[in-house]
Amino acid sequence: MSVPEVTPAEVYYPNEPAAPSVQTAEIPGPKTKKALEELAEVFDARCAYFVADYDKSVGNYIADVDGNVFLDVYAQIASIALGYNNPALIEAAKSDRMISALVQRPALGNFPSAEFADILKDILKVAPKGQTKLWSGLSGADANELAFKAVFMNYQAKKRGYNTSFTTEEETSVMENAIPGSPELAIMSFERAFHGRLFATASVTRSKPIHKLDMPSFHWPKAEFPSYKYPLEDNEAANKAEDERCLKIVEELYKTWHCPIAGLIVEPIQSEGGDNHGSTAFFQGLRDITLKYNSLLIMDEVQTGVAATGEMWAHERFNLSPPADLVTFSKKFQSAGYFYHDPELTPNLPYRQFNTWCGDPTKMIIAGAIAKEVVEKDLAKKISVVGDYLYAALAELSKKYPTEILNLRGKDRACFIAWDSPSPAARNAFLVNMKKNGVNIGGCAETGIRLRPTLTFGKKHADILIQAIDKTLGEN
């Protein structure tokens, strides 16, 4: 399939830069350094790469206050769907519905607006197959924590009876954080997983120590996620054996863990932990095990969702039977929450899954507008075509730099592509030098390099990216 000549970027951004432009010898440049010094007086600015000028950022290009303009294939840690200053989203932001949601900021659980049902329906139009309901949150980590609450309440409701009242002992003991009102239950996750930095999500995050050091954690089980050999087509037998090994560990944990495992959370592609892939057989195996042990399956689509891998939701490629019980979302949707379908995942009484705002209608309006653009402009298909082109070019480049581009992965997953550097130091130097060559790019795990461009990324952007990678590696 040929790459289309007219790309979504050209439709949205007729004035998008033709190429990156680097004005300063070092990045961050002098104006960024000065701005960060000022920012550091009131905010922890140590994680900042540079200070952006969002008014001058367009489409797939991000500008900084020094006048540098970078091709952005990191896109705000995978959270920009349609590019900077997208005209369709600007129109949604100007709407009367948006103004009302901004000014009123309703407590949605108690005082939903007359438009709220329609706002939700716009999102549900692109819900994962089999999902018919949603509960909204404020971030990816919040979405996962809310999903855990739903899982735990559902687990206990099944034991007690959905419409059975709480006992006096349950109501008394829960106020002491004691059983039976506070039961000992667990969520299973995987080595190298990342699900957030809040208290429960930190307990299931296993990617880097810095994410959770000094925080009390729940004693919850950790299974092993497959570590495949690449290229996949040359290692089918070994990778099949790896799937079977990991599934055996999962089932053994269900059998032996000291308390019931009420749910299992897994990413369709482990992202922060290194862009680690799993096969259809592995994920269907997880689905089968959760059913066997009366546990619920949570698919964490925070980073992989909204067409990032060429499907609206990455796990739909596995055709799980039956569908996952909950699917969490955030990032490219600019909103957050979880989809579900079982009515009994709605708690039996009001005010159990609840907070003041129950999400943010302004972000849900933008999510609906993003969904509309993705569907109407067929962005999932278009980014898949570009991704095939980009992957083929990277595969050729890996032959030129066989010791620098290792374990290339993400074939047939649109532009959700990654590879490994030979060492952490080499990876970090590569990321720095790519900025000097005009590309803002991100890493994952210790040695991984991940591509997370917008859905308007086209062939011309891929060509610029490949040239920058070639130049950067050639300068080593």
UniProtKB/TrEMBL annotation:
Q: Does Transferase show up as a keyword for this record?
A: yes
Coiled-coil stretches: none
Q: Which reaction does this chain catalyze?
A: 4-aminobutanoate + 2-oxoglutarate = succinate semialdehyde + L-glutamate
Read off the InterPro entries from this record.
Answer: 4NH2But_aminotransferase_euk, Aminotrans_3, Aminotrans_3_PPA_site, PyrdxlP-dep_Trfase, PyrdxlP-dep_Trfase_major, PyrdxlP-dep_Trfase_small
State the Pfam families in the record.
Aminotran_3
Keyword entries, A-Z:
Aminotransferase, Pyridoxal phosphate, Transferase
User: Where does the source fall among the domains of life?
Assistant: Eukaryota
GO terms of molecular function:
4-aminobutyrate:2-oxoglutarate transaminase activity; pyridoxal phosphate binding
Name what cofactor the protein needs: pyridoxal 5'-phosphate
Name the GO terms of the biological process aspect: gamma-aminobutyric acid catabolic process
Q: What PROSITE patterns does the record point to?
A: AA_TRANSFER_CLASS_3
Q: What is its EC number?
A: 2.6.1.19
Q: What is this protein called?
A: 4-aminobutyrate aminotransferase
Can you name the source organism?
Kuraishia capsulata CBS 1993
Biological classification of the source: Eukaryota, Fungi, Dikarya, Ascomycota, Saccharomycotina
